[in-house]
Amino acid sequence: SDKRFSALGFGARIPPNYEVSHDFAINFNPEDDECEEIQGVVEAYQNCLPKIQLYGPTNVSPIISRIAKLSAGEETIKDASRYHILLILTDGVVTDMADTREAIVRASYQPLSIIIVGVGNADFTDMQILDGDDGVLRSPKGEPVLRDIVQFVPFRDFKTASPAALAKCVLAEVPKQVVEYYSHKAISPMCPIRDSPTPTPIANSPAE
After folding, report:
1. Residue 93 CB coordination number (10 Å)
2. What is the pLDDT of residues 10-54, one digit of tens each?
């Protein structure tokens, strides 16, 4: 990995015209929304926050559709080398539920997993529907997802837990989702790349 991460925002009025956006680069560079490592994401967020006006509703379908489209470009790669994980942090209940369900159904055909972390004390009951653990998620037209790709985690359940416990829960379903995608595509796992052995130094005695 190059340790660069796309970082996008939604639900805000953004400069220069302060129009509401549900899909914008938090580094304000639409041509390159990637940040250097996690620290770069944190710094971009801290720099972005004072410049925007948080604004509802909470629409996440545009970002899901955007990343699904990006993931679709990986279908030309015929090995199991590229898979995307979309992490959504939200303090509000999703208000475009119908569009979000439709976007998730479409995204379930792509090399993509979606992790949603609910922050705060909002009623996240509807989020469990997106998770699909209690039944198969369907689009408003009744089309089922190809595979379950969503994991919802309420952060409040982990306020006193260790970071490792949160990470374990957040990532719990990803390995299965990756296997299901490549199994559906009949793509075998890549062989692990082994480090080549370090040559043994040879000491040459000076000729006499």
Report:
1. 15
2. 999 999 999 999 999 999 999 999 999 999 999 999 999 999 999
Distance of CA 174 to the CA centre of its chain: 11
Token digits for 2? 């190059």
Whole-number Å distance between alpha carbons of 99 and 4:
29
Q: How far apart are the first and last CA of the chain?
A: 52
128-139 residue pLDDT tens: 888 876 678 999
Q: What radius of gyration do the chain's Cα atoms show?
A: 21
Cβ contacts of 78 within 8 Å, gap of 6 or more: 187
Work out the burial of residue 122: count CB atoms within 10 Å of its CB; fewer than 13 is exposed, 13-18 middle, 19 or more buried: middle
DSSP string of 6-40?
E-EE-SEEETTTTEEESSEETTS-TT--EEEHHHH
Q: Tell me phi and psi for residue 49, to 5 degrees.
A: -55, -45
**Separation between Cα atoms, residue 111 and residue 180, nearest integer Å:** 10
